[in-house]
User: Fold this.
Amino acid sequence: MRLRALTRLAGRALARNKMRSFLTALGVVIGVGAVIAMMAIGEGAKFRVQQAFEAMGTNLLIVLPGSTATGGLQGGFGTQPTLTWDDLRSIQTELSTIRSAAPVLRVSAVLQSEDQNWTTGVVGTTPDYLTIRNWTIEHGRGLSAADVDAGAKVVLLGRTVIEKLYGPGANPVGQMVRIKTQPYQVVGVLARKGQSPMGQDYDDTAIVPESTFQAKIQGGLSKFLNGAIFVSAVSPESTARAQQQIGNLLRDRHRLPVGAADDFSVRNLSEIASAQQQGTAVLTTLLASIAAVSLLVGGIGIMNIMLVSVTERTREIGIRMAVGGRPRDILAQFVTEALALSIGGGLLGVAFGLLAAVSLAKEFHWPTIIRPTTIIVSMGFSALVGVVFGLYPAQKAARLDPIEALRFE
Amino acid sequence: MTRSLIDLRDVSKTYRMGDVEVPALRGVSLQIQAGEFVAVMGPSGSGKSTLMNIIGCLDHPSSGSYRLDGREVGGLSRDALAQVRGQMLGFVFQHFNLLPRTSAQENVELPLLYADVPTREREERARRALARVGLADRAGHQPNQLSGGQQQRVAIARALVNDPKVILADEPTGALDSRTSMEVMELFQTLGSTGVTIILVTHELDIGRCAGRTLLLRDGRILADTPQQPVAADPRRYSAPNPEVRA
Assistant:
């Protein structure tokens, strides 16, 4: 029999019991809708994590100096300055996998405007720092190489600091701010960056040239780099190699014998990021599998109703067989009906899922990402459900004995 | 000898009911030529329906051979049998067996649907078949809007629509009053005169007399096979049916 005739037949049979058809399809509607909504939320969560790590910096690695070990008490990374300014220059110039590297000297200090004061983390660094951290300037300008060379008393302020010192939304470029009582000129306002994945406020900071930091805040130049080195690898794939290269370079430079522990540590932030992303991916898969189970339950509903329908229409099947309907025509008829239920339910489910995702996104300000593949896969899956669960009832119909079927009351 | 349209040789059919074997047909041999109008008669349990089911390719004989238009159909698959039914046979049942909530037109189109006849031709042929049974103006009606006699006419139109070699009618008047029965028989006689082969099962003598040949079955055997001068069906001999009564 032809496809057009089959679909017309199925449509007619389903329209005959509208409520029943709708309720049967509802199982699939909910299943597909749930899969799509869950996937959208899961993808949204993944995107959010990704965004958070991108805000931390591009392909970021952090090199921390070693620990002090006095009398058996180990002080933790960063307690002993083992990184030198020469180490930084070597990392910047000698390694193939590194795009840029910047020193990050940090101290907590009091900042004073005309009438307010605020204690924040003051960072001494080079212009590269802003690119490594993907940080843009909202007003004014960033640091320049000339600032660093001259040890200029200029400062970039984060939004939180500005709020405390000048009030929300203020643009203090050109004004003076005192850091540890010394006057600095505000040359730039850092664009709002928000929270780090660990909950730290990026915007609660002030940035000065590293030379100025050493001379005026730290109190004197030093051979040692009294902080961390932030490194940006050339690509996300090369971060692991960059980590290794930096390790080898520093062991070499620090003349550590084979077997001795590192007197520094290199942290690969993108590794942490991908671990977190895997975590959300696992969660998404879990949610989607639970939703898929409901799709399965919808399929069982279809099978149930198709079995009832075959019994109810035994006589019809007998008539169709008597006038020349082959068993395979009967099979095709009932499979088409089951498919119409599941695909119809699937289409409704897609609409329902999209609606749910969009309204969730609005309600909770949660990002939702709807991938076309999710829709295609869940539609395919619901069609599969129709075939799988429609086949058994259809076979039952096709195997009926026409004589028995015609006698059926 | 010319080839018979229907040629049964020593056909037996045994049903199995649990452990008991019930013989329904015991060695029936029968030839029917094209254009004959045969009435199969006999008491219930005599094997009439089994014989019809075998001739109608709805059932396989347990033993013996059945040739329909020269082709052995005993060993055919279910799909092949369905095709034979669709192309060579037309069925008329006691209880009409029309699809409910489906118009007369579409009921008549059904065999053509399974024969993959294109839509336009299908509609045209169904219209002509309905006209042949005098129901051209009832094409859009559903079975529950038609009287018993009209429903049976629609069923006959359905049996006719694929130009079958044989029309098989199993107690076609069993659910109709006498006058309507005679109207249906009149229609069968008209069709018979145009060369359609008709085999009809009945246990009513009045109905059997309308055929040109009577087979009498008893206990699965043919007891008598008699040619006869058919009596013309005359519905006017009977009073008009109560129009309220619908089968």
